[in-house]
C-alpha cells in the first residue's frame, strides 16, 4: 500500500490528525503529544475519521514530555552533538524588539505564523547577537 502511513507523530490534532487517520495503513501506529489546533478553540471539533482506528486496527497512544524526564540529560547531549555535526537542521522564527514583544510572540505562536521554533529576542549582547 504505497503512500499510506505506517507511523504518525502528531503535535497538531484537528484536521491534520483526521487526514492522517484517513491515510493510515492497517496496524499503523499513531503517537500523539499535542493538539495545538484546538488549544485556543472555543469549540474544539472531534475527529471525523476516528472509526479508522477500529477498521485499520491503528494503535494510538498519547504521551507527554515529562514521561521521559529521566532521559533529558542524555537527549540534550546527543541533540547538541547532532546539531553541531549538521545531522539535525532547525528552523526558527525570531521576533525582535525585546521582552515587550513576548505577548505578541505568544499570540503569533497560536496563530501558527512561525516556521519551526518561535523565539523572542530579549536583548542584544555586546557582540550584537540576539539574546533569546
Number of domains: 2
SS strand fraction:
15-25%
Q: Taking Cα atoms only, what radius of gyration do you get, to the nearest Å?
A: 19 Å
Q: And the CATH topology of the largest domain? A: Rossmann fold
Percent helix range: 25-40%
CATH architecture of the largest domain: 3-Layer(aba) Sandwich
* SSE series: EHEHEHEHEEE
The first-level CATH class of the largest domain is given as: Alpha Beta
Largest beta sheet, briefly? 3 strands, parallel
Shape: globular
- Secondary structure tally, helices: 4
First-residue to last-residue Cα separation:
45 Å
Q: Which class best fits the helix and strand makeup?
A: alpha/beta
What can you see in these coordinates?
The structure is a single chain. This protein has helices at 14-22, 52-55, 72-85, 102-111; strands spanning 5-10, 24-32, 59-62, 92-95, 117-120, 123-124, 130-131. The chain has 132 residues and is of the alpha/beta class. The protein has 2 domains: 5-67, Rossmann fold (3-Layer(aba) Sandwich); 90-123, no CATH class. The strands form 3 sheets. Strands 1-2-3 form a 3-stranded parallel sheet. The chain has a two-stranded parallel sheet with strand order 4-5. β6 and β7 (130-131) form a beta hairpin. The longest helix is centred in the middle third of the chain and has 14 residues, at 72-85.
